[in-house]
Amino acid sequence: MRVKTFRTMRTGGMLLLAGIVHLTFFHDPLRGQNSSAPIVVGRDVPTATPAFDVVSIKPNNTGSGNVSTRTSDGHFDASNVSLRMLILNVYDLKENQLTGLPHWAESDRFDIKAKISEPDSAVMKHLTREQRQGMLEVILLDHFQLKFHHELKTLPVYEMVLVKDGPKFKETAAAEMASETGVNGVRAGSISIHNTQLYATGVPLSDLAAQLSGQLHRIVIDKTGLNGKYNLSLAWTPDDTPPGQESTAPTLFTALQEQLGLRLQSTKADVKMFVVDSASLPGDN
User: Fold this and answer.
1) Which pLDDT does position 239 carry in this prediction?
2) Predicted local distance difference test score (pLDDT) of residue 32
3) CB 183 within 8 A of CB 213
4) With contact defined as beta carbons under 8 Å apart, do 57 and 282 qualify?
5) How far is 82 from 144, CA to CA, in rounded Å?
6) Low-confidence ranges of the chain (pLDDT < 50)
């Protein structure tokens, strides 16, 4: 079971959702609308990605700032989510990649319950992240009538490079990769972020770049040239920490250099944009 609970915080003058996040790997965030790949887990396992049998979407008018999503075998439950949040999550987009949303896509919130009536545990166990996201994509296409296309746009980005003295982290050992608890309580292949602390065990630096993209609201591209899997530990203070809540931790940019031996340099690059052509409010169902 994976649980993600978010709260609103600020960094660099911008709002973002922060919480405890567990990620295994990333894929092309702008895949096609019918891209669910077949499952390959054995001769006796069906190769088609499962689909939710029942989907219920109800308005959430509580005005609460609490947002949560819960995924377990055959079930998906979301509370107080907006269409914008769903699109960003399903397509692994950064906020500056998403444009064309109707005004209600941010303000209107929804509670979503989706389930498979009789899930096959063997199939669900071997679903990739991309396949699980493909199941959620169907909710957007069918219930929100989402239509979109892609465009290239030149945007400011950060390139993540090594500082002169090289990296200040180590490649994950074989024993750590096989450990059930991993390092700092984070299993191999995962990143955990809680407020302004990040721990990772056995992840490529491209995963770190993706997490930094979310924190900075700007795409971060891994240009280190390092291709291994690493253990990472990072602690920082938001640029706009309120008076009286000062921390001894440095800013994110400084923390990257001092703690990991990495530097972010600003440049521009062509970015594939996700452009919403149309979307509709879901009816009561």
Assistant:
1) 73
2) 34
3) no
4) yes
5) 11
6) 1-46, 284-285
The values of phi and psi at residue 96, to 5°, are: -80, 0
| Backbone region of residue 202 per phi and psi (left: phi > 0; alpha: psi in -120 to 50; beta: other values) | left
Question: How far, rounded to the nearest angstrom, does the alpha carbon of residue 178 sit from its chain's CA centroid?
Answer: 24
pLDDT digits (tens, 9 = 90+) for 183-201: 988 999 999 998 899 999 9
Instruction: Name the nearest CA neighbour of 207 among 21, 25, 17.
Output: 25
Contacts of 283 (CB under 8 A, 6+ apart): none
pTM: 0.66
In tens, the pLDDT along 232-278 reads 999 999 876 555 566 678 999 999 999 999 999 999 999 999 999 99
